[in-house]
Amino acid sequence: VGSMVFFRCRKGYHIQGSTTRTCLANLTWSGIQTECIPHACRQPETPAHADVRAIDLPTFGYTLVYTCHPGFFLAGGSEHRTCKADMKWTGKSPVCK
């Protein structure tokens, strides 16, 4: 209980889920299940106080969806970012305050 795990993915992969998870008193882990997903765009840093989920949308392409942790709100940047053909992300890194 109280142990923390920090996740990161190898080069060429993007993290989906929580980058940090904590063992809770009920012996479950906080946050969202973490997974490494291959992709061409470099993984942008996950902002503080946020989780990221990667989805592959047929119309838009590979998209990152950010969710602020409980008690925080999106104070700037983009909630969604999509990998473009030039291997750059749309939008700006979200800010959770």
Automatic annotation (TrEMBL):
Disulfide topology: C9-C36
Matching Gene3D superfamilies: Complement Module, domain 1
Keyword Signal attached: yes
Domain Sushi residue range list: 1-38, 39-97
The keyword Cell wall biogenesis/degradation belongs to this UniProt entry's keyword annotation: no
InterPro entries given in the database record: Sushi/SCR/CCP_sf, Sushi_SCR_CCP_dom
UniProt entry keywords in alphabetical sequence: Disulfide bond, Glycoprotein, Repeat, Signal, Sushi
SUPFAM superfamilies: Complement control module/SCR domain
PROSITE patterns according to UniProt: SUSHI
Pfam families: Sushi (PF00084)
Signal peptide residue numbers: none
Protein name: Sushi domain-containing protein
Gene source species: Diceros bicornis minor
Upper taxonomic lineage: Eukaryota, Metazoa, Chordata, Craniata, Vertebrata
